[in-house]
Amino acid sequence: MSKKIVAIDMDDTICHLIPKAIHYHNLMYPDLPLTMEQIISFDLSGIWHPACTDDIFFGRPGLYEELEIFDEYTIEEVKRMTVDYDVIVVTAARPASVPEKWRWLQMHMPFIPFDNFFVAKRKYLLDFDLLIDDGPHNLIAAKEAGKQTIMIPRPWNAPVQQDFILKDSWQGMNELVGQILT
Ligand SMILES: [Mg+2]
User: Fold this and answer.
1) What phi and psi, each to the nearest 5 degrees, are found at residue 37?
2) Beta-bridge mates of residue 90
3) Which of 64, 83, 117, 175 is most buried by its number of CB atoms within 10 A?
4) Residues near ion ligand 1 (Cβ under 5 Å)
5) pLDDT (tens digit, 9 = 90+) per residue, 39-91?
6) How far is the CA of 157 from the centre of ligand 1 (A)?
7) Please, is 155 exposed, middle or buried when counting C-beta atoms within 10 Å of its C-beta (0-12, 13-18, 19+)?
8) Coil, strand or helix: which one is 31?
């Protein structure tokens, strides 16, 4: 029997995008600093500096290569997961950031082969068994399609956290995936 497929998001699931993007935003616009707690939706246009744009906030050259690992357990847990599951990394990357994201994966998780790197915004079209993600839109769509889900709790998914299994650290993630998929 083929392995079950576990789809893992990148930004704010295995690495921290929003804190780094906020950091650069605040360096550029010190008169209007943002905090994590303010990020309560994926639409930031109402809270970032009026001069800020999607390209400035999310498209800074090199941004995706310098993102920090989610926590000290992330790499080991993902690596262990590849023993029992077909682990695919699925990211809704901006086209220009795809090479940066692939290089980040190669640097931190070289055990993820190119075949398992998916760039997809409409993740619900993929045939995975379980999705680990922070994006409410991805998790809701996966759930509606009958897939299993694990939500990384972040300020922007607070309104729907009660509908999902939450895991705010990668410590023990394998065990949780095993419990859900057996
Ligand atoms: Mg994400």
Assistant:
1) -65, -25
2) 118
3) 64
4) 9, 11-12, 134-135
5) 998 889 899 999 999 999 999 999 999 999 999 999 999 999 999 999 999 99
6) 11
7) middle
8) coil
Pull the structure tokens for residue 138. 């991805």
- Please tell me the distance between residue 133's alpha carbon and the centre of ligand 1 in angstroms: 6
Give the separation between CA 148 and CA 132, rounded to whole angstroms. Answer: 9
The residue among 14, 11, 34 whose CA lies nearest residue 24 is: 34
Which residue spans within the chain are E strands per DSSP?
5-8, 15-16, 68-69, 86-91, 117-119, 130-133, 148-151
How far is the centre of ligand 1, averaged over its atoms, from the C-alpha of 21 (Å)?
Answer: 13
Strand partners, 132: 8, 150
Q: What does the pLDDT look like over 15-53, one tens digit per residue? A: 999 999 999 999 999 999 999 999 998 889 899 999 999
Task: Give distance in angstroms: CA of 154 to centre of ligand 1.
Answer: 10
- DSSP of 153-177: --GGGGGGGGGS-B-SSSTTHHHHH
